[in-house]
């Protein structure tokens, strides 16, 4: 199987697709109305033409995160799913939450709701990615 940075390419792609799907659920179905309201985006703005390159860019960012998680799992020698989940949780607490907090502190909205939506998306996405990366070697 082809590798990317020593990681199984199929595992990285599977983790990326799963993580991207979590984003679709989070921002497209579960929290879409709340997220748009907190961002101040009217529903009519979402119906206007969207540039598909933004979606491609979002997937590229997701792949980059899956590669990063995979590298940490490899370096940490996370041999099983429990170790992978713990590594993802530690990464989330020490990297994702502080990064998401920038949006809360410095964003115009200062919305705790937006912070919680964004941080929980990363939590679920990173854990799902870690599980997939630990199962597909």
Number of helices: 6
Tell me what portion of residues adopts beta-strand conformation: under 5%
Number of structural domains: 1
Strand order of the largest sheet: 1-2
Order of SSEs: EEHHHHHH
- As a percent range, the share of helical residues equals over 70%
**Principal-axis shape:** globular
Low-confidence stretches: none
Please state the average pLDDT score.
Answer: 92
Alpha-beta content class: mainly alpha
How many beta-strand elements?
2
The biggest beta sheet reads:
2 strands, antiparallel
Q: What is Rg?
A: 16 Å
Q: How many angstroms separate the termini?
A: 10 Å
Topology record:
Elements: E1 3-4, E2 7-8, H1 9-30, H2 32-39, H3 43-47, H4 52-76, H5 81-106, H6 112-135
Antiparallel strand pairs: 1-2
Helix pairs in contact: 1-4, 1-6, 4-5, 4-6, 5-6
Characterize this entry briefly:
By secondary structure, this protein is mainly alpha-helical.
Structure description:
The protein is mainly α and 137 residues long. It has helices at 9-30, 32-39, 43-47, 52-76, 81-106, 112-135; strands at residues 3-4, 7-8. A hairpin with a 2-residue loop joins strand 1 (3-4) and strand 2. Helix 1 crosses helix 4. The radius of gyration is 16 Å and the shape is globular. The mean pLDDT is 92.
Defining key terms:
single chain; 137 residues; mainly alpha; two-stranded antiparallel ribbon; 6 helices; globular
């Amino acid at each position: 199987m082809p590798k990317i940075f020593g990681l199984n390419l199929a595992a990285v792609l599977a983790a990326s697709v799963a993580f991207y799907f979590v984003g679709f659920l989070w921002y497209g179905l579960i929290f879409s109305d709340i997220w748009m309201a907190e961002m101040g985006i009217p529903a009519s703005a979402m119906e206007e033409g969207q540039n598909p390159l933004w979606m491609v860019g979002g997937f590229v960012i997701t792949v980059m995160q899956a590669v990063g998680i995979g590298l940490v799992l490899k370096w940490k020698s996370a041999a099983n799913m429990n170790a992978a989940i713990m590594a993802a949780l530690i990464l989330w607490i020490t990297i994702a939450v502080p990064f998401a907090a920038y949006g809360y502190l410095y964003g115009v909205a200062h919305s705790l709701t937006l912070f919680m939506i964004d941080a929980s998306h990363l939590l679920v996405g990173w854990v799902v990615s870690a599980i997939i990366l630990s199962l597909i070697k």
